[in-house]
Write a structure and sequence with these properties.
The protein is mainly alpha-helical. It has 15 helices and two strands. A two-stranded antiparallel sheet has the order 1-2. It is globular, with a radius of gyration of 21 Å.
């Protein structure tokens, strides 16, 4: 779940910055940004964010609140395109800006900590993620914001971090609490879907295949109520259900979902790390189906993707290269 920064919608005078107009209010900024995400042009999205950041920076500190929102959105954008260092840099800027304006005990500060922790989790620094999630949770509790979307987001993300550390009971406790909360909130189809998808991963890790599949299917139903909106978690949900179907040897349906995930990821986020993971997943299906040429093609895409993002010497890149050599040698 990606938390956005809320602030007064101060009226601003339009200013030109390159090819873009400085958003008049935060509502305008978010509306324009969402429209760009719908188009799926990543270069245009980045250019817009950079232009807004520079424009608000020029009028610093009068528009510090707006600058915070832009920094936060930049962190989320770079995270979704697997540029993790840039993501941490942007979230760090938002965190420092909030500390300067409002202090470290406000919910806006907790929101950015939650978002930053999500980047650490994707980088594989799970303990670092847990520490930040717990800090954000403490701030929300201190502020009395327990029954809110933002608090549910922290619980959901904290559960995922605990999952990766193998602390299943902690993960289950936090995730069940999050699911109960988001089900009672209006307009939360995406959030219910994300929570069900995370529950599916948790049950799968704990060995409960049937419960995992049940949750994964519920996740997709909720995701597809709003499938035209950009959401990196939808692609993950498709991957999750496809993996469970693969385990049941339902290869045709698994392949269909993997391809749908790859297409969706490329449309909204480009060929990021999740795209490469999906290509590798398709390789396993093609191999089981006896479609050797397609299996090789999928591995080659995964290798190119991992090499570009992680480097040729990374263990994930090497594992894909080993699979590709084995498959090609089998001739």
């Amino acid at each position: 779940m990606h938390g956005r920064i809320s602030r007064r919608n101060a009226e601003l005078q339009d200013q030109k910055q390159g090819d873009y107009t400085l958003a008049g209010t935060l509502d305008t900024f978010y509306k324009e940004l969402d429209a760009l995400y719908t188009k799926g042009d990543l270069q245009q999205i980045e250019a817009y964010l950079l232009a807004q950041r520079d424009a608000f920076s020029d009028d610093y500190p009068a528009h510090l609140g707006e600058l915070i929102a832009v920094s936060n959105e930049m962190g989320s954008f770079y995270r979704s395109t697997s540029r993790y260092e840039k993501s941490l840099e942007a979230f760090g800027a938002a965190r420092d800006q909030i500390a300067q304006e409002l202090g470290k005990n406000c919910t806006q500060y907790a929101t950015v900590l939650n978002n930053m922790a999500g980047t650490y989790r994707l980088m594989g620094d799970y303990q670092g993620a847990v520490d930040l999630f717990l800090e954000a949770r403490g701030i929300y509790l201190e502020a009395g914001d327990r029954n809110t979307y933002e608090f549910a987001s922290v619980l959901n993300n904290l559960s995922q971090a605990y999952l990766h550390t193998g602390q299943y009971q902690e993960a289950i406790t936090y995730l069940e609490e999050a699911l109960r909360m988001v089900k009672e909130m209006p307009d939360t189809d995406q959030d219910v879907a994300i929570t069900y998808n995370n529950l599916a991963a948790l049950y799968r890790a704990s060995g409960n295949h049937e419960k995992a599949k049940e949750c994964a299917e519920k996740a997709i139903v909720s995701f597809e109520k709003c499938a035209d909106e950009e959401n990196v978690h939808y692609a993950a949900g498709l991957n999750s259900l496809a993996g469970l179907l693969y385990a049941e040897q339902q290869y045709d349906r698994a392949l269909e979902l993997y391809q749908k995930s790859a297409d969706y990821t490329r449309r909204f986020f480009g060929e990021n790390i999740e795209y490469g993971v999906t290509c590798r997943n398709m390789y396993w299906v093609y191999e089981q189906m006896g479609r050797r040429a397609d299996a090789i093609a999928s591995l080659e895409k995964a290798k190119e993707n991992f090499t570009r993002i992680l480097g040729a010497d990374h263990e994930r890149t090497q594992a894909v290269a080993d699979d590709l050599r084995r498959l090609q040698a089998a001739g």
